[in-house]
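User: Sequence in, structure out. Go.
Assistant: Echoing your sequence, followed by the structure tokens.
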Amino acid sequence: MTRPPSRLGRLGRLVRHPDGRARWLAIVTWLYVAWSLIPVLVAVRISFNDGRSRSTFQPVSWRWYWGDQQSSVWHDETLRTAMKNSLQLASLTMLVAVPIGLAMAIGLHRWRGRLAGSANALMLFPLVTPEIVMGVSLFLVFTQVYTSVPRGFTTQLLGHVTFTLSYVVVIIRGRLVAIGPQYEEAARDLGATRLQAVRLVLLPLLGPAIFACLMVVFATSIDDFVISSFLSTGAGTETVPIKIYSSARGASTPALNALASIRLATPRNSAT
């Protein structure tokens, strides 16, 4: 006569696959995903409220996207300016930081001098330095040292490039280590010049890493608050994170939720 399965036995079968593998890792992962996404989905839903409430669900409407003639994202000049500034800043940071970081990564990968190790370690400093320290340092540099640099968007761009450059170097160098020197050496043996080997062989092999760098830099820049805030000069240089932070504590409307929801649809999600 067989005993009925105990509660402990039923729990064990619940958290394990039939083939014996643990299922609890998948359960914990999905619980974390739900915990992370549910507040975001709630905020997105509130952006479609027909009324001004940001705490309760109301009938669905496009009012805060373009319906309201004064406070919607489409008609509010401050919200449109913040979105435009964020997209311009992230796009230019991506276009400037990735080529420079690519060249630096290739150079550092081939450098065999005494200072090569120190230079490689120096590239990691922005990754381990608290962002508040980076923001204060960049603010002091542009206000006390490089005073001729135009304040506002220009300093924000230089600050974002400085902060994201290390990400590009680390990603590209990791790909260079995985590729190895054999493909480039084979191209040189077949008669290609050094420049042709880099352009026709190395760069295509670095394509996935370059694409990853573009997405990471764009996502980091468009999501940045600290450096953008320190280097901002007013409403004309506000980005979306700055605008949300400065307006969320006041008598705001679901237009802020709509602004944040629009930004969720930008390519920053591709980096995640």
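User: And one key feature?
Assistant: Residues 268-272 have pLDDT under 50 and may be disordered.
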